[in-house]
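Closing statement on the flavin-adenine dinucleotide sub-project.
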Amino acid sequence: MNTNETKTFDVLVVGGGIAGLQSALDLGDQGYKVAVVEKDATIGGKMIRLSKVFPTLDCASCITTPKMAAAAHHENITLFTYCDLKSLDRAPTGITASVTQRPRYVDAKKCIGCRQCEYNCPVLVTDDDQGGYAARKAIYIPFSTAIPQLAILDTENCMLCGKCEKVCPTGAVDYFQEPEDFTIEAKTAILSTGFQLSPLETKQQYGQGKIPNVITALQMERLLAPNGPYNRVLRPSDGMEPDSIAFIQCAGSRDKSMGVPYCSRVCCMYAIKQAMLLSGALPLADIIIYYMDIRAFGKGYEQFFQNAQAMGIQFVKAKVATMNPGENGSVTVRYEAQDGEGSVTADHDLVVLSLGMLPDWNPVQQCPVSIGEDGFIDQVKPKVAPTLTDMEGVFVAGVAAGPKDIVDTIAVAGAAAMEASKYMAALEQGRKAA
Ligand SMILES: Cc1cc2nc3c(=O)[nH]c(=O)nc-3n(C[C@H](O)[C@H](O)[C@H](O)COP(=O)(O)OP(=O)(O)OC[C@H]3O[C@@H](n4cnc5c(N)ncnc54)[C@H](O)[C@@H]3O)c2cc1C
């Protein structure tokens, strides 16, 4: 039965990536009741899917997992995962959000995360959380550190054999579960909906995603991750260890034909990071970064770039014009060299595209907050108060306002939490004065 219950909190945080988690933790620690609405089945955003992070090369999940666990166990934070935000609007009392809980076909109150359903499921499906390079079951927990540890049944691939239902020790599998609508009322909201990468299919000259060994940088993160699909770096098409790996910078940013005229800011640094990690994993491989400019803007980033050069990673200043399938699974890259060499062709075993960052916020149906020309949420005072939007009581954090690295994401998320807390204090003062 759909009751459309109303749940009341002080703050609504939309998006449970590192930005949303940081804002939620800061506000929860100040005693505010926080609801985090996340569309994915787990919190953690992109960061939990990264291998290591520049410029320190710390393990990404070693930093993200404690924050995820702290949010999950915080007495003032309630997580609503696998939920769609239908709308977010101002009401006389504050912010009202309509949310739909998508059915997991597993009762969240009964599931104990034992994975018996997953182990016994006979259906194998491509696992997008592993870049598409591994298989998962039709009933599954996204990954070992996912929060919450609740199974989801993927009805598109389930063959209704009933094995999961039979083996579940708590009777949690429920094939008849339905979506549930509910309303969240809060005094203020923080939008931290992050980004998506620009689709590989957009660029005809780069093979439109049809060349087997041309992969995205997020797929490379999975190949490099200690809990990745192969436990070592292998070429996806045939499992060969690549001897020559190329990174193509600005493959989806600073490119009007891709609809992304702006710089995505983090691609230079993550390509350098991945190249360094690859040279450790495959010491004999040739690693080349084709770049237009290197933007090493943060603290310690220039040194990081210099370290990569000292390690023997080659930097070729060039704009890659086309990519085509070569012999034996290789990729033929044609580029215009900026050193006067003209048009050059080179073959690589594996090519990684630094695609652009696009906003993951769908404003039209959801919320009247304004967006900028680049599609990211507009900051009305970008210099002096970068978390303010044009909607009263609604703040923005992380990449939802524009491309950022993790350092800046966390700093801005903290600032958004402070603005939200200041706003609530002013509301309280106004209430007392009235
Ligand atoms: C390949 C790659 C490597 C990188 N490596 C590094 C690195 O080494 N160091 C570094 O500093 N930075 C790195 N970055 C950048 C880093 O990933 C971002 O800075 C960080 O993830 C931003 O966090 P976020 O919370 O703003 O966004 P996200 O991580 O995108 O999280 C946003 C969350 O919001 C959810 N969401 C979106 N829309 C909705 C909605 N409507 N309702 C509910 N939930 C929603 C999403 O599901 C997601 O969980 C890298 C980026 C890429 C692409």
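The mean pLDDT is 95. With this model delivered, the sub-project is considered complete and its resources will be redirected to Aim 3.
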